[in-house]
Amino acid sequence: MASRAPDAYAAAQALLQRLQHTPQAFGHAVPAVELMQTHISWLLLAGEHVYKFKKPLKLEFLDFSTPALRRAACEEELRINRRTAPQLYLEVVAVVEDEGGLRVLPAAEADARGLQALAHAVHMRRFAQDDLLAALLAQGRLLPAHIDALARHVAQFHAAAAVAAPDSGWGSAAAVRAPVAQCLHAVQALAALPELASEAARVAQLAQWCTAQGEMLAPVFDARLQQGWVRECHGDLHLGNLVVQGGEPLLFDAIEFDPALRWIDVVADVAFLVMDLHAHGRADLGWRFLNAWLERTGDYAGLQVLRYYCVYRALVRARVAGVRLSQLSQVPQPASEARSSALPQALGEVRHYVQLAACLSAPQPCWLGLAHGFSGAGKTTQSQALVARGVVRVRADVERKRLFGLAPEALSAAVPGGIYTPEATERTYARLAELARVVLQAGYPVLIDATLLEAAQRARFVTLAADLQVPWCILAFEAPPEVLRARITQRLQSGGDASEATPAVLERQLATARPLAAQEEAHTLHLDTTQPIDWDAVLAACRTLESSAANAPQRPIFYRLLAP
């Protein structure tokens, strides 16, 4: 049950009103002071600065009922958000009566001077609301480059985050499944409303799916805790809590009030953004973000739990919309114009997120693709279109460097003996096969991005496909030699790519190349990367394998395919 102390609440509101009319209290230029609020905070917008105060509330999920608890929450908010956005989160301040008037001072200074704090707040640097990723998306300004940079930032954040001890309880199977069950209970209550009767069957199916998946994945949740994948994450990683500053995306407003929502599997963290991009009609960017994050972290095993966490995040959003629906329903009649429009919106959001959860729970057709071709043929650049359509790509250039402890863009010259020896190549292809197995067993189609010029290299994956009983195909990326040479030269000049192929490497490839075997040709789609490619048709052809493989595995269903 929610509660608030009326006297404390009224006193806090009165203090904020005084601050609004005392701009000199802030110690910096303030043309005007605006007041905004969320359900748990008040925000004073003072020029280029923001002061965030905790409301004196005690809710089911937080306790800000005393001054000490509110100060502690401010300090925790500062600590966890300075991990990702130190330029936005400046300090904790105290509001004091000093020399006959209100003043806002650093909390440490107020303590040192023995001044009694009337309230504490988080002092932040203000940013333009148009810089939020939610606004960029709504305005059509969210670019793939933003998503790639965000994936790097999130991966670096997760790598540096504190790791949960195995006996901490955070991230255990019980800790993962309990909030999902609670969320489902709330959503099932919503589905009992007459206005949402159309979703009742879908919610019942989701409840069965979550229960079954939670039981099946319980050992995986516990194993990931033991392996160190449960960390002090952000906890609320959606488009409204991401902002571009100085050309770089930043994470802010991490959850400070409940550590259980923050100490989670890193995949649970990224699942929120993946789900949110799906919810906003940009699944392509969700897949792009996921793939870029996977390349940075190497956590392909996390795909085992991704679908479960995505469904949970969608159900959370349905539950939040339901809370808003309940609040609107309690507004006295006659309904205001605002309430009349807000009620259908809240109902629509519940339906939208329930339907999204059902969609995200559905299995994908699984197949194994081999991106075959010379260096410079466009395998990585062109296959980005498949990534945007839900294919998990594993790159040989990235995984080879990971085996030697190198970042994707790092140069390998400093590695004794080099990383392109026959032994290193064998290790790389063994790793690619291992990851392909992991991705397929997690229920996702996978594309191996490698030259795969030798028959033995390709045979390893054909055997894997047969072992897992999934269809396979070869996507042969092709371009004339002069185009390949020009692309490699341009790539080397630009830098920043995981590939270190040189013109000399290409010439060796061209000189020793052997054609695909007839049996391989029956599974091959030749792609001329000098022309536009109809990628939807490519994906449809790949999916055709699922139904055709069992009855006619050698049927030559592929052909040269270009956009009309």
From TrEMBL:
A Pfam family the protein falls into: AAA_33
Domain of life: Bacteria
Xref: InterPro entries: Cell-binding_unc_protein, Kinase-like_dom_sf, P-loop_NTPase
Gene3D superfamilies to which the protein is assigned, alphabetical: 3.90.1200.10, P-loop containing nucleotide triphosphate hydrolases (3.40.50.300)
Matches recorded under PANTHER family: GLUCONOKINASE (PTHR43883:SF1), SLR0207 PROTEIN (PTHR43883)
UniProt protein name: Aminoglycoside phosphotransferase domain-containing protein
